[in-house]
Amino acid sequence: MVAAASVVVAVGTVTGMMSAAGDGGGSDEARPRVTSAPRLEPLPAPSPPPSAAGSASPTTGPEKKAGPKPSASGAERRRQAVPVSTRLYRHPESRVLDWVRGNPGDPRRAVIESRIAGRPAAVWFADYSPDSITARVRAVASGGAARGQVPVLVPYAIPDRDCGGHSGGGAPDLAAYDAWIDRFAAGLGGGEVVVVLEPDSIAQSDCLPAGRRADRFASLARAGRVLKDANPRARVYFDAGHSGWHAPAKQASLLRQAGAASADSSDGVFSNVSNFHGTADEMAYDRAVLDALAGPPGLGAVIDTSRNGNGAPSDGEWCDPAGRKLGRAPSLSTGESRIDAYLWVKLPGESDGCKGEPGAFSPSYAYDLAR
């Protein structure tokens, strides 16, 4: 595992998330003795939009400067024609919700429920299960559409994912992965969705020989096209690592090879998934990556703010480090140029692999993040 790769456990329920073994129950050894509700600072809210004038439903796209409009591809025109909702979907099934429901008397429950379980978060599809993936994606996408809300979906099944680290697994080969993506796309429906495509697949690709890396990038570019063709309202973001990893120019070069500069496959980049770098650092980094990427003007960035409230540890620790806090609340309205959203991609309280099995819910870790 290199500095800051994402860590999740493979999942296999209808929703793409499940309760895991480990300390997800109520018998956590680190259980605090809480006699009264702790004082909680409010989660940092997104910056207000620069002006309330104009549309009452701001989009997540970048601010446009006046001037001649460049010609756009069909995918770009479709994206511009559909405003993006400012509402994110909270799926009713997750490990943290399982823990909250199963531990009504735990003194940490109120804090974890209000500050983590009550927030919208991404749904990961991390197991290779081609027979059920369409139905599972459809269940999440249709749940969001029924409420007029936007689900965040994370396909995570690329072969050799995580380069043999804690979150190894995925499809047996790229042909199988391409077919899995086809089935994933078939479940997207026609509502608004955000797709965080394969965390670590680009930033961590140095572990692959050049030929296999090129093949992976071809599959990722294809995946973006397939997802956007299946649902023109899908917004697909590609892996930019984070501000403590590759230099923007290097990351942009990798992203370009993977199709992230094409509006037919990409809406931009994501960063900081399962990591802790501060939002200001990520915004500066993502803008530098987008500048170097030199794609169409509509490309933007989304940032995982789930655990970055205190920034990254000074020693570079990435595996369940102490002293971290929740970051900005999830939102599709950031008020920041080219920053499309703050998302909770990594669900706070799910272990990176040090406080429990990768992906297992740790109530003590969640409580420390939230209080």
Describe the structure.
It is a single chain. This protein is an alpha/beta fold and 371 residues long. Helices cover 29% and strands 8% of the residues. It contains 9 helices and 7 strands, in the order αααβαβαβαβαβαββα. It has helices spanning 74-81, 95-102, 109-117, 133-146, 174-186, 210-230, 248-257, 279-293, 363-370, and strands at residues 123-125, 152-155, 193-196, 234-239, 268-271, 300-304, 339-343. It has a 7-stranded parallel sheet with strand order 1-2-3-4-5-6-7, covered by helices on one side. The two termini are 29 Å apart.
Overall strand count: 7
Can you summarize the main beta sheet?
7 strands, parallel
Quickly give the structural class. alpha/beta
- The main sheet orders its strands as 1-2-3-4-5-6-7
Order of H and E elements: HHHEHEHEHEHEHEEH
Which stretches are poorly predicted, pLDDT < 50 over at least 5 residues?
A: 1-39, 47-85
Could you tell me the radius of gyration in angstroms? 19 Å
Number of helices, counting only DSSP H or I runs of 4 residues or more:
9
Helical coverage, percent range: 25-40%
What is the percentage of strand-forming residues?
Answer: 5-15%
Categorize the overall geometry.
globular
Average residue-wise pLDDT = 82
State the end-to-end distance.
Answer: 29 Å
